[in-house]
Design a protein that fits this description.
Length: 125
């Protein structure tokens, strides 16, 4: 599985402070000594993460654009669960089951229709 990249000072800081997916490596732009990036470098060192300093064009290549704010975080991929496993887990635990399913609609929706769609989960009880 391919690892996921997260970019931007605030998203990377939140990911490093949280308890979600495991961070693997933090990439910083070489030569930038801004206090916000230095705080992230210190946090990454505190967490004993692998740190790499790369030229800005390399970060742009990895992110796919130039809006990375000088930092990228490589983290473990998001773990998906099969629907059957969700049902099995629920059956073992008991309790109330609620699923919210979202899909992209290829049609334009008017305001009146969107209100009906937003209320759709109410009819699933």
């Amino acid at each position: 599985m391919m690892a996921d990249l997260l970019y931007g000072i605030n998203p990377v800081r939140e990911a490093l402070q949280g308890s979600g997916r495991e961070p693997l490596c933090v990439y910083f732009v070489k030569g930038d000594t801004s206090p916000r990036l230095q705080a992230l470098i210190d946090l990454a060192k505190q967490k004993q993460l692998k740190i790499s300093f790369l030229p800005g064009n390399e970060l742009e290549r990895m992110a796919g654009h130039a809006h990375h704010q000088g930092v990228l975080l490589k983290q473990t991929p998001f773990k998906y669960v099969a629907f059957e496993d969700l049902l099995s887990s629920w059956q073992k635990k008991g309790g109330t089951l609620f699923f919210s399913c979202w899909m992209e609609l290829p049609i334009r929706i008017t305001l009146g229709q969107s209100c009906v769609l937003l209320r759709w989960p109410d009819v699933m009880e």
